[in-house]
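ok trying again, last paste got cut off:
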Amino acid sequence: MSGFSGKLTELKIGTGGTAVRVAALKTTSMSVDGTQVDTSNQDDGAWGSTLTGGGKKSCSIEVKGLTKGTAAQNAFLLSCSNQDSVEYTLAFPFGLTAVGNFIANGFKIDSNVDGAIEFSTTLQNDGEVTFTVTP
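nice, full thing came through this time. structure:
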């Protein structure tokens, strides 16, 4: 996969045709983690084994961007400050899309930049996240 610009990534509230873009993003990163359940025992012959499908999965999204205060952008900032569980769609320019409910796990607003407010937040999944790839 080649590099991409964070500003080409779209963060939207909702899914499908009714999803609304929340801000002009400057940088974006996503981390997907999983822990395994160790089921190793003496019969494994010193090899470790794990429970298939077990463990905990998590997904966090860090974004920095600009907002000019549209209704959708204000709703996004309010949901972040209230730590509401909101359904988001994150669409990367190379075809990967993540959809799920997320809660802001930190939120910062910076100074006004040419009529726009700069913000940063980390969104943490609140339930299952669905990933799709379109070429």
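cool. The chain has one helix and seven strands. The chain has a mean pLDDT of 87.
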